[in-house]
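Weekly sync, protein design subgroup
Attendees: M.S., D.O., the rotation student, P.L. (late)

Item 1: inverse folding check
M.S. brought a backbone from last month's batch and wanted to see whether the design step gives back something sensible before we order anything. D.O. pointed out we never logged the input encoding, so this time it goes straight into the notes. Structure tokens as presented (303 positions):
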């Protein structure tokens, strides 16, 4: 085996290890070559996707569990390539984070789409409170991130209180002190902060008192386990009680059945989203969700 082939095989094994998490190693196997070729093709197209206008944002409705009203939308990035077709976010976002493309892509989602669109909806008189946008670790740790958020709000005309930034639990506990410092600056702008996928595996509850958090978004595994795990409902009630005691609100996501909707309502969650109430859809159709509102009203009436 020549040196060039050895280096290429080592790179393939390295990328496989990185894709499966940190602090691990992988032995090279021939199948990795095909996988690496697919990755390189994906990355090549990804580098030009923004300039070729291949991205779009879909919006998933969020409802107030007490009033049944639409109160917001979560902005979700979608990518369709002319050659590769529709690519799932979990396929291209990790690559974008590794090569830094997530920074311009994230700015586009935040400014040119999510905030601009929400500002237009509110000016048109639609009764919705705001939009939530996912923020990656690469974006959040950049020194200019707070300035970017400030510029986004200024250029889009969206009120800061109508923007919610979603940070993952694993991100905020990497360096609690630094996270708290930056989160305080974001909140000083008037922007709300939520912790996404809460309970996904870390959940050192001590950080909840140390970080400026407005909203906890329950990991969807809690909702999915309502049917199979008898203790899930009690656990969710405990988390909701703790969050409310700390002045936070709780959003349940991944609700797909009437039973799950009833259980998150009974558990005291404040907001809810999921396929039962509305699938992510393009801006042109995102607010034509009368069926979503009807489903929630029917649940409330039946109680």
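Designed sequence read out in the meeting:
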């Amino acid at each position: 085996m020549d040196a060039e082939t050895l280096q290429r095989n080592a790179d393939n094994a390295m990328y496989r290890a990185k894709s499966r998490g940190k602090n691990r190693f992988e032995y090279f196997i021939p199948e990795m070559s095909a996988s690496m070729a697919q990755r390189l093709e994906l990355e090549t197209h990804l580098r030009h996707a923004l300039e070729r206008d291949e991205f779009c944002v879909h919006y998933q409705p969020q409802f107030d569990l007490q009033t049944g009203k639409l109160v917001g939308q979560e902005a979700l990035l979608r990518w369709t390539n002319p050659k590769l077709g529709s690519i799932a976010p979990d396929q291209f976002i990790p690559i974008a984070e590794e090569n830094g493309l997530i920074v311009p892509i994230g700015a586009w989602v935040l400014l040119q789409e999510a905030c601009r669109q929400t500002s237009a909806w509110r000016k048109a008189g639609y009764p919705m409170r705001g939009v939530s946008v996912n923020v990656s670790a690469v974006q959040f740790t950049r020194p200019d991130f707070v300035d970017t958020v400030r510029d986004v709000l200024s250029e889009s005309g969206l009120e800061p209180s109508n923007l919610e930034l979603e940070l993952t639990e694993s991100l905020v506990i990497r360096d609690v002190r630094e996270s708290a410092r930056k989160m305080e600056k974001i909140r000083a702008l008037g922007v709300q902060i939520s912790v996404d996928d809460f309970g996904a595996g870390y959940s050192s509850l001590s950080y909840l008192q140390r970080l400026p958090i407005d909203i906890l978004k329950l990991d969807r595994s809690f909702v999915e386990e309502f049917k199979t795990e008898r203790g899930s409902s009690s656990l969710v009630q405990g988390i909701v009680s703790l969050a409310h005691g700390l002045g936070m609100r709780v959003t349940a996501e991944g609700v797909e059945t009437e039973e799950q909707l009833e259980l998150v309502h009974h558990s005291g969650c404040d907001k809810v989203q999921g396929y039962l109430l509305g699938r992510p859809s393009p801006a042109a159709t995102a607010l034509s969700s009368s069926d979503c509102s009807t489903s929630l009203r029917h649940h409330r009436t039946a109680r």
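Discussion: The beta strands are 55-64, 70-81, 85-87, 130-134, 163-168, 192-198, 215-218, 249-252, 271-272, 281-282. The CA atoms of residues 41 and 49 lie 12 Å apart.
Action: P.L. to compare against the previous round before Friday.
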